[in-house]
Design goal:
136 residues, mainly alpha, Arc Repressor Mutant, subunit A, 3 strands, globular
Length: 136
């Protein structure tokens, strides 16, 4: 099976793969992880230095233990986060970004900047929509 092109930006619309194309599945799974609710905050909070689970949970705020555990597990599975267990009593577990995880900082920062710059316009659009169609 021929893999997806490095960039689909240059493909004509009729050559874009269909959602059910098997080549889309790995990309879809990865995007599901990196676009999850807590991923961008976890990655941002690990940028400066490794952190223990409880410190990470505290610095993010509002995330449940279950959600943070699941997010860290997915990021580790995808090679974006390292989990290092130090055999002490109690065991110490530190999380850090891998070199691959650090490459995610650039697009996440760009997306965050876009969201900050466009928040007012999006908020206005939502208000117009709700006035026209009613709230959900």
């Amino acid at each position: 099976m021929k893999p997806l092109a490095k960039s689909v930006e240059d493909l004509p619309r009729e050559q874009l793969p269909h959602h059910e194309d098997p080549r889309c599945a790995p990309v879809r799974r990865l995007l599901q992880t990196v676009c999850s609710k807590w991923c961008s905050l976890v990655v941002a909070h690990l940028e400066a230095e490794p952190q223990r689970f409880t410190d990470l949970k505290r610095s993010i705020g509002g995330v449940t233990q279950k959600s943070l555990t699941a997010t860290l597990r997915e990021l580790e599975k995808d090679g974006l986060v390292n989990r290092v267990v130090t055999p002490t009593i109690p065991p110490r577990v530190d999380y850090s970004l891998t070199p691959l995880g650090r490459t995610l900082l650039v697009p996440l920062k760009a997306l965050t900047s876009w969201a900050i710059e466009n928040e007012a316009a999006v908020s206005s659009a939502r208000e117009r929509y709700e006035r026209k169609h009613g709230s959900d």
